[in-house]
């Protein structure tokens, strides 16, 4: 912009949005040990965290944690802050999902929301709390959130999109690591993938994940200081080898 244009430019001439909030779809996998005679994997369930709104608009309705971005922060910082303020969650994996701008989505005016999704381990929810402007906080299954609850604004659409995104990522990237301990068995990994993508069925999972060339290098066996393989019988009668993710992210193709 030339100096002359800069001096005469008037930002007020242009209509700007009435607010730019960040909304966060926060997923976690809950894990409950089963009381069975034989050792078996714990029960894992995918849940989404919602807050019950206290004030207008949509007072009393369940909604995503979120709030308005301030002038001195990035939208990413606003998402991190809102998540912490409204739910007590500090940390975890936070990623951009998309922009939601359908006219009329918020009765207060022209309000464009930027949505994020967060993958949080269950222990991180321990200090969860609802702040003053958020009411109760609850963890819901995807079925409850999408089919049974009355949700505020366009939050049902945002949750649907976020669910689809994490299902795709679960099959194409190593985000399963966000829901697993550092060391895990391949049966646990398979269970985590299936919890997020129930349609995923691969009878030869263990053989494929350890031998298919395109997958090689994403996992490695856990070994002790002497170099011996480390196994666990926490969830099985016979000891099972423990694995961990490496930093390698393969570029996968649907055509091969
Ligand atoms: O909770 P307050 O601060 O009232 O407003 C933020 C909400 O307003 C909506 O457009 C957004 O989707 C966001 O959830």
TrEMBL record:
A GO term, aspect molecular function: hydrolase activity
Taxonomy, superkingdom: Bacteria
Keyword tags: Hydrolase
InterPro entries, alphabetized: NUDIX_hydrolase-like_dom_sf, NUDIX_hydrolase_CS, NUDIX_hydrolase_dom, WH-like_DNA-bd_sf, WH_DNA-bd_sf, WHD_NrtR
CDD domains: NUDIX_NadM_like
Keyword Hydrolase attached: yes
Record keyword Transport present: no
Pfam family, one: NUDIX
Domain spans labelled Nudix hydrolase: 33-163
Protein family membership: Belongs to the Nudix hydrolase family.
Name used for this protein in its record: ADP-ribose pyrophosphatase YjhB, NUDIX family
Organism field: Paenibacillus typhae
């Amino acid at each position: 912009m030339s100096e002359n244009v800069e001096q005469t430019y008037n930002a007020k001439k242009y209509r700007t949005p009435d607010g730019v909030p960040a909304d966060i779809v926060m997923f976690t996998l809950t894990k409950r040990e089963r009381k069975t005679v034989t050792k078996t994997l714990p029960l894992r369930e995918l849940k989404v965290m919602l807050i019950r709104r206290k004030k207008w608009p949509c007072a009393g309705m369940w909604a995503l944690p979120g709030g308005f971005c301030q002038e001195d922060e990035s939208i990413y910082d606003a998402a991190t802050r809102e998540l912490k303020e409204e739910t007590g969650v500090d940390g975890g994996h936070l990623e951009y999902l998309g922009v939601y701008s359908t006219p009329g989505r918020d009765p207060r005016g022209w309000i464009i929301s930027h949505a994020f999704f967060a993958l949080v381990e269950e222990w991180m929810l321990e200090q969860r709390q609802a702040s003053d402007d958020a009411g109760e906080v609850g963890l819901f299954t995807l079925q409850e959130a999408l089919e049974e609850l009355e949700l505020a604004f366009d939050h049902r659409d945002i949750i649907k999109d976020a669910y689809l995104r994490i299902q795709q990522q679960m099959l194409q990237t190593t985000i399963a690591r966000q829901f697993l301990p550092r060391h895990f068995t391949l049966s646990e990994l398979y269970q985590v993938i299936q919890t997020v993508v129930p349609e995923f069925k691969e009878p030869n999972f263990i053989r494929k994940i350890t031998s298919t060339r395109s997958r090689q290098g994403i996992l490695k066996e856990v070994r002790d200081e002497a170099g011996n393989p480390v196994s666990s019988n926490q969830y099985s009668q016979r000891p099972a080898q423990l694995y961990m993710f490496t930093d390698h992210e393969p570029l996968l193709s649907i055509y091969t």
